[in-house]
Amino acid sequence: MTDAPTTTRPRARGVLLGAMFLMATSAIGPGFITQTTTFTAQLGAAFAFAILISILVDVAVQLNLWRVIGVAGVRAQTLANHVLPGAGYVLAALIVFGGLVFNVGNVAGTGLGLDAMAGVDVKIGGAVSAALAVAIFLIRRAGVAMDRILVVLGMLMIALTCYVAIVSGPPVGEALRQSVVPDRVGSDGFVAIVTIIGGTVGGYITYAGAHRLVDAGVKGPERVREISRASVTGVIVTGVMRVLLFLAVLGVVTGGVDVMASDNPPAAAFQAAAGEVGLRLFGVVMWAAAISSVIGASYTSISFIATFSPWLNRNRNWLVAGFIALSAAIYLLIDQPPATLLVLAGALNGVILPVGVGIMLWVAAVRWRDLLNGYRYPKWLLAIGVAGWLVSIFIAVQAMSGIQDLWG
């Protein structure tokens, strides 16, 4: 899926918006909603501190990755192969595996969303949603359609969650205070920070927006300002959704409702805040989050292998459609959600993160003359990136411990 390398200003703005929301909506999936609800119930207003820290780390990582990939004008796997022959193939294999496993969970999320929204059987809902996602990539101007659909879905999720956040009556002032001076953080808060950082910049999510800009021809040193603005805005969109969802659940929790007693805590929170209407709104938000993540995971995963041969590149849209179909088939054939594989994929994404970030920072610091077209990378930005990379290494260590515990 490529766009013409030269675009009009309105189209360029559409591409930038699409890239922002591709990254943001890829991060806002079923796991995002469940994690935010769970940690809010555990930590209360103190979770605001974890959200603030995660947003700062997200900005540090995404600002660097988008700039390196955007200025170079090639995808991450190509840069990795230039730095260390074969590294791009390894990175691509890890990204595709993690993307496929997560996509099974995303398809399952669409079924849960339609069930809460309209009482549709979860298997039927997942199949119909996957078919809709496939159709998007089989139309003639799939890139344009994807950009527009993701912007609409992202705005829909934000608007509906904002409504629930308002009616739940959260203690906003207390949340603001504890975002800077939390009453407690402890081990639970520490786990929350590590988990939500891995969930918003781990695996394929890290590269989604940057690869979209390269595909659309928004690249090169002369586009640095647009690339940087898009990367930060994408993180902010994700952060806004996280904050609104946090406030919606916080209002319910501080009102004395035990959402964790339910089999579906996010649905229980929405229902407690707005009654039956809230439950239906949860269904819409869950479906929008899941279907946009299906699109993002599939598009980005295939972008990692399309450069390996001309045939793959020519048939990208069919490969994306096949990726979605395979994810749906796995979901329909298993009796239960692949919990073990989802945990493994989540841990694997945490391991992948410092590898990819480290390679991109090496390009910025050492290979800028040849791979960045002579663009002198700002030292302050490199320093921020290194700080984010060190955090990602710690996340990787924690993720590896999780893998050992899983297969112990």
From TrEMBL:
Subcellular location: Membrane
Transmembrane parts of this sequence: 12-33, 39-61, 82-102, 122-139, 151-169, 189-210, 231-253, 284-306, 318-334, 340-368, 380-400
Alphabetical keyword list: Membrane, Transmembrane, Transmembrane helix
Alphabetized Pfam families for the sequence: Nramp (PF01566)
Any one annotated GO CC term: membrane
Topology of the protein relative to the lipid bilayer: Multi-pass membrane protein
InterPro entries membership: NRAMP_fam
GO MF annotation terms: metal ion transmembrane transporter activity
Keyword hit for Metal-binding: no
Protein name from the UniProt record: Mn2+/Fe2+ NRAMP family transporter
Organism for this UniProt entry: Murinocardiopsis flavida
